[in-house]
Design a protein that fits this description.
The protein is an alpha/beta fold. The protein has helices spanning about 5-20, 35-55, 120-125, 125-130, 150-165, 180-190, 210-215, 235-250, 255-260, 270, 280-290, 290-300; strands at about 60, 65, 70-75, 85-90, 100-105, 140, 170-180, 200, 220-225, 260-265. Strands 1, 2, 3, 4, 5, 6, 7, 8, 9 and 10 form a ten-stranded mixed β-sheet that branches. Strand 7 (about 170-180), helix 6 and strand 8 (about 200) form a beta-alpha-beta unit. The protein is globular and about 55 Å long.
Length: about 300
């Protein structure tokens, strides 16, 4: 098991902090400015060395072509987890000295890998409409082969790899999943919710538990149609009530609970003007991807 880069950074920083202050007399007015520049430089070098060592433990095969800025079908070879196929957009203006946000979008069944490399980019819009919210954001569009636990573990592995490979702000890592992608998202939130700033669960069902999510207090929005052909509002309401009960048990105020869990049910009128049919479930994907109230909520967290 690899040690996450965030843990390595904290360990290195703590060791240097202890080394600096145990070597000098106690000074109640000491501040960060009292740390010699040479010590800060050593800390930065140690963190970078740790990052490079961790990065070397990953094996990646670069993608084969570019689709609207995304390098398609990169492969992270993840040992027992298998190969993780993903498309990646790194903005042209990416600056390694300035941490950026990361958005991970999980596809519905038509975008899974067995549908073909890059299929998710052809059938869903989330990876493209998200760019309007942050032009400097890195966007990953993985293609699992299903929506089971292994796929969820692959998403965690890919996210952790990207946090090592690029200068990403760990406080701005966002996750979205539509349909089967939402089911995968629920399993990710059941295992490693703290990896993400917020999660957007669209037209789907919750396959995981909610205890870990409640403990991490990661904001969650569930959006779906009131007559979705595959998923029910009743199931979504059950998840929301379970979360709200856990938050109440933690002593949180109702307004804070409202911020942490949002149930957004769309009526028939929301889908009425979509000209190409597909019912609520089929039309919901482009409509929600284009809806600033939905996707905008995610990046506002």
């Amino acid at each position: 098991m690899r040690t996450p880069i965030a843990v390595l950074t904290l360990l290195v920083g703590a060791l240097l902090f202890i080394g600096t202050y145990t070597a000098t007399p106690y000074n109640p007015t000491a501040s960060a400015q009292d740390v010699p520049a040479s010590t800060i430089g050593k800390a930065a070098a140690s963190v970078e060395e740790a990052r490079e060592q961790l990065l070397a433990s990953y094996e990646v095969t670069p993608g084969t072509y570019v689709d609207r800025g995304f390098v398609v079908d990169n492969v992270l070879h993840a040992g027992d987890l298998g190969d993780i196929h993903y498309s990646l957009l790194v903005p042209e203006g990416y600056d390694v000295t300035r941490p950026v946000a990361l958005f991970v979008t999980l596809p519905a069944e038509p975008g899974l890998y067995y549908q073909g490399a890059g299929a998710n980019l052809r059938v869903e819009e989330f990876a493209f409409t998200a760019q309007a919210y942050d032009a400097n954001m890195i966007i990953a569009a993985p293609q699992p082969n299903d929506w089971e636990q292994t796929s969820a573990d692959q998403i965690v592995e890919l996210t952790e790899y990207l946090l090592v490979a690029y200068d990403i702000d760990p406080e701005r890592v966002y996750l979205e999943g539509y349909s089967y992608g939402g089911e995968t998202l629920s399993l990710v939130m059941d295992t490693t919710p703290g990896l993400f700033r917020a999660a957007l669960h669209c037209a789907s069902q919750w396959d995981g538990g909610v205890e870990a999510l409640a403990e991490a207090r990661v904001p969650l929005r569930i959006s779906l149609g009131d007559d979705d052909e595959f998923y029910t509002v009743e199931a979504a309401q059950k998840v929301v009530e379970e979360l709200r009960a856990l938050y109440r048990a933690q002593g949180l105020a109702e307004d804070e609970i409202d911020r942490l869990v949002v149930l957004d049910v769309k009526g028939a009128s929301y889908f009425a003007d979509w000209p190409w049919g597909g019912g609520q479930h089929g039309s919901g994907s482009p409509l929600m991807a284009r809806d600033p109230e939905i996707l905008g909520w995610l990046f506002a967290q």
